[in-house]
Design a protein that fits this description.
Blueprint: E1 10-11, H1 21-26, H2 37-54, E2 60-65, H3 68-79, E3 85-90, H4 93-104, E4 108-113, H5 122-132, E5 136-140, E6 142-143, E7 148-149, H6 153-161, E8 165-169, E9 188-190, E10 203-208, H7 210-217, H8 245-252, H9 264-280, H10 282-302, E11 318-322, H11 329-340, E12 342-343, E13 355-359, H12 367-381, H13 386-394
Parallel strand pairs: 1-12, 3-4, 3-5, 5-8, 8-9
Antiparallel strand pairs: 2-10, 6-7, 9-10, 11-13
The chain binds pyridoxal-5'-phosphate (PLP).
Length: 395
């Protein structure tokens, strides 16, 4: 058996995207034991970096080992007790995911929906909050399936006013769009590395407000074999061991209570992703995503293609393009991949085969990536005008 030798690709889909070489380099470093003082200091550094990424003072800011979905499950299973009311405003596939995970946590789940391609008005969310009186409101910021980015400041304010815990999935949006954990009053937010953070999937940064942390710690049941006399079982036990944030907080905190074995290589990668972002400056990184997103938008329009959804509320880092009548969307994607080494995506459910999703995020939010992709699209579609339109944005 020969060693894996992956082909060179330019990943211009909705994520994963081509990883920043600095992240890959960080991930090639040797392991250190999980309780080595160097390692615990690296864990503390990682927490401090992600406080900057999430724009929060939350002490409880760390990594859940696993893909972004692991962060979502950890947040919801640790917050929700069976029978709790959870409200999920759904505007795409990942809203449905939040509802389905909440159901598995045996919550009484209520959803409200807008058509794919739209976002919620705050009044509609407040009316549902009044009606349902949920313990938790769970919402996605940027739903990759539709490319829409839900404004959250008003929803945070509504949740505070009605004493509702607010959970947000920022996987697709953080780093490329404004995101304010504390200013918007979010209780838990989770993310992933494989979009605007320029890393691979496999680590889910999370931040937890003091009031959410108190609520979770009020359900702490430390597992047998590592508990001591100070541990008393309180509250309803969290239904997952791996995603039991009460125990995971003790692993990342001063107690360093053994739980899982930290995924050291992923931590190296996550640390470098955050360092890249903080070095660049969050506002500069968001402006970079806005610029290259705008260039890609101009480029696809220059090619004569229609853009799906409410463009005013589109995430900066991904665009959904209507596949023109008579064009075989899968053939175009296959030719881009086979002939040019460029990957773009389609979408899910009602949008499967109806749109292409093209990302400009993380390491690929740069002009060469945008222009190369548009050039290849011109050749595959036999149309012009894409590169020139993007170049006008850069002029
Ligand atoms: C908004 C959003 N949430 C959650 C996920 C799930 O992430 P993962 O595949 O890393 O578990 C994705 C992946 O595309 C996403 O875009």
């Amino acid at each position: 058996m020969t060693a894996l030798d992956p082909p060179r690709r330019l990943l211009m889909g909705p994520g994963p995207i081509t990883a920043d070489p600095r992240v890959l380099q960080a991930m090639s470093k040797q392991l250190v034991g999980q309780f080595d003082p160097w390692m615990t200091a690296a864990m503390n550094d990682t927490m401090a970096l992600y406080r900057q990424v999430f724009r929060t003072a939350n002490e409880q800011t760390f990594l859940v080992d696993g893909t972004s979905r692991a962060g979502i499950e950890a947040a919801l299973v640790s917050l929700i007790e069976p029978g709790d009311r959870v409200l999920v405003p759904v505007f795409g596939r990942f809203g449905h995911l939040l509802a389905e995970i909440s159901e598995r946590c045996r919550a009484e789940v209520h959803t409200i929906e807008v058509p794919w391609g739209e976002v919620f008005e705050p009044d509609a969310v407040e009316a549902a909050v009044r009606d349902v009186r949920p313990k938790v409101l769970a919402i996605v910021q940027g739903d990759t399936s539709t490319t829409m980015c839900q404004p959250l400041a008003d929803i945070g304010e509504i949740c505070r006013r009605h004493d509702v815990l607010l959970y947000c999935d920022a996987t697709a949006s953080i780093g490329g769009n404004e995101f304010e954990t504390d200013a918007w009053g979010l209780d838990i937010a989770t993310a992933g590395l494989q979009k605007c953070l320029g890393g691979p999937s496999g680590s889910a940064p999370i931040t937890i407000s003091p009031r959410a942390a108190d609520l979770i710690n009020a359900r702490k049941h430390v597992e047998a074999g590592i508990r001591d006399d100070s541990d008393t079982d309180v509250g309803t036990r969290i239904a997952s061991n791996y995603f039991d944030l009460a125990q995971v907080m003790d692993y990342w905190g001063p107690r360093r209570l053994n739980h899982h074995t930290e995924a050291t290589t992923m931590l190296y990668g996550a640390h470098e992703c955050a360092r890249l972002l903080v070095e660049e400056g969050l506002d500069t990184a968001i402006a970079r995503h806005e610029l290259h997103g705008r260039a890609m938008l101009a480029g696809v329009r220059g090619l004569g293609l229609e853009v799906f959804g409410d463009v005013e509320h589109k995430m900066h880092n991904v665009v959904a393009v209507e596949i023109p009548d008579g064009v075989d969307g899968d053939r175009v994607r296959a030719e881009l991949l086979d002939d040019f080494g460029i990957e773009i995506g389609t979408s899910f459910g009602p949008l499967h085969g109806r749109v292409w999703r093209i990302g400009t995020m993380g390491y690929n939010a740069r002009s060469e990536a945008v222009l190369t992709t548009l050039d290849a699209l011109e050749k595959v579609l036999g149309r012009g005008g894409g590169v020139a339109a993007a170049q006008e944005v850069y002029a």
